[in-house]
Amino acid sequence: MNAVAYHLDPAHGLDGLTVRGQDVPQPGPNQVVIKVRAASLNRRDLMLMDGSYPLPATPGIIPLSDGVGEVIAIGDNVTRAVLGDRVSAAYFVRFINGPQRLAHVAEQYGANYNGMLATYALVEQDSVVHVPEHLTDIEAATLTCAGVVAWAALTAPVSVAQGETVLTVGTGNVALFAVQHAKMLGARVISITSGPEKAERLRKLGADETVDRSETPDWDEKVLELTDGLGVEHVVEAVGLPTLSKSVRSAGYNAMITMIGASQLPKGQPLENPFVGPYLAIRRIAVGSRDQYEAMNRAITEHRMRPVIDRMFPLDHAVAAYRYFRDDNPFGKVVITMP
Known about the structure:
Elements: E1 4-8, E2 17-21, E3 31-40, H1 43-50, E4 66-74, E5 86-89, H2 102-105, E6 120-124, E7 128-130, H3 137-140, H4 143-155, E8 165-169, H5 173-184, E9 188-193, H6 196-205, E10 209-212, H7 219-226, E11 232-237, H8 241-250, E12 251-260, E13 280-285, H9 290-303, E14 309-314, H10 318-327, E15 333-337
Parallel strand pairs: 8-9, 8-11, 9-10, 11-12, 12-13, 14-15
Antiparallel strand pairs: 1-2, 3-4, 3-6, 3-15, 4-5, 5-7
């Protein structure tokens, strides 16, 4: 198949996702060309398409931050990769380590730098990340966004400690990675979900206890019961403002609540004061650094962890993959494979 790339015009939704031929990129100094093998979708990719993401998509950009492939060309001064390496790219083009600054979040693959939904991807060497060897291409293509943000939620500024309790809220990809990462860190995991089938799958994934919010609307009371009234030490709040008040009531003294992504309160729903109750910290984070990505990969390798895959689509069905991801409530990552 000839090289192709999808391009996004956010003004036209799914109709704005079009494909055309692609020339093999030529790397400049400090750049790497990857022949992409697989890429995957995140919620931010839908937000970029409908204009609700905080960083607007550049019209005509190649979408998707998550992908993996083989290095086929390198520019002058490249030291982080050699020909034949299997690599991905960090979410932010130049966020290597330390505190995240506004300048870091202003440069993102799949938003204003060309991303992974193409035969070839051109990336800066500062963002090159080698992926765990035991993972397939399909699995390795899922880590960049949801995997790293879940890792950052649980390991910074202070890592979850052995024996602490982590509460995960939701069953999107960040929440699923959070269950797996928390178990790698030696934590007890309580997961809030929306039905018995998902609850069973979460238990198989590693959750120690699950609470079905459709059967137990006051799930915060159940969490307190499961923790002998003490509450949990960490909450990965992957739903957002609609469930924040219950997450606060589930938290123990000096707990950390990490809110994932951009969240809006449903129209007409009041927001309770989240700081009435136990002393705790609430923060929002935006993915993580290259160093955090690499630390996560070391833990994944040590524990032989494998991401959850829901469904795969070939490259020429990328629009169908977007539609399925948007409309069909997948459990796990939706991956697009390259010919």
